[in-house]
Design goal:
171 residues; alpha+beta; two-stranded antiparallel ribbon; 46% helix; globular
Length: 171
């Protein structure tokens, strides 16, 4: 390895591990300093725990506008309902912020078929349906297909069970 590559490798290595070393030092010294604010997340909305993004960073408005899942971009982020949402453009971001209850996935992004059974299973942004002007995400293709055949079969029990499940998620 040339001296220049060694220097770049060392800089990259240090930039990756310096924050982790600092965190370990803070924790070893007795926890969080009093001025640090801890981030909070919600389980009421499906959020990727590694990135902090709602519905995997997909633009919820794109399902309505483009009729397909579209990844959002970092420059078009918004904080709403305890989660970070990404959008493909500023117009989609503005539409969502004006009407998050319309564009946000129903049941917080949990699979409505599973919610109808009384359990919460995170929906996959690739398995989706817009039905009755509402976005539904499903954990698996079979759930999406069953829902598509008879939405009311799943919506009635899901809507009656969701308040209890949502309460349990927030505890």
């Amino acid at each position: 390895m040339t001296a220049q590559r060694q220097h770049r490798h060392h800089k990259a290595y240090c930039s990756l591990f310096r924050p982790a070393i600092a965190l370990i030092a803070v924790l070893a010294a007795g926890g969080w300093p009093s001025g640090v604010i801890r981030a909070s997340t919600t389980e009421r909305i499906v959020v990727d725990h590694s990135s902090g993004l709602a519905i995997g960073g997909f633009d919820p408005v794109a399902y309505f506008v483009d009729s397909r899942p579209v990844l959002g971009m970092e420059q078009f982020e918004a904080w709403e309902r305890g989660a970070v949402w990404r959008f493909h453009n500023e117009g989609n971001r503005a539409s969502f912020l004006a009407h998050p209850d319309i564009y946000g996935p129903q049941f917080g992004g949990y699979d409505p078929v599973d919610v109808a059974r009384g359990v919460t299973v995170a929906g996959n942004p690739m398995f989706w349906i817009v039905a009755d002007q509402q976005l539904f995400l499903f954990s698996r293709e079979a759930s999406r297909d069953a829902f598509a055949l008879d939405p009311e079969r799943y919506l009635r029990p899901a809507m009656s069970r969701w308040p209890t499940l949502e309460y349990q998620l927030s505890r």
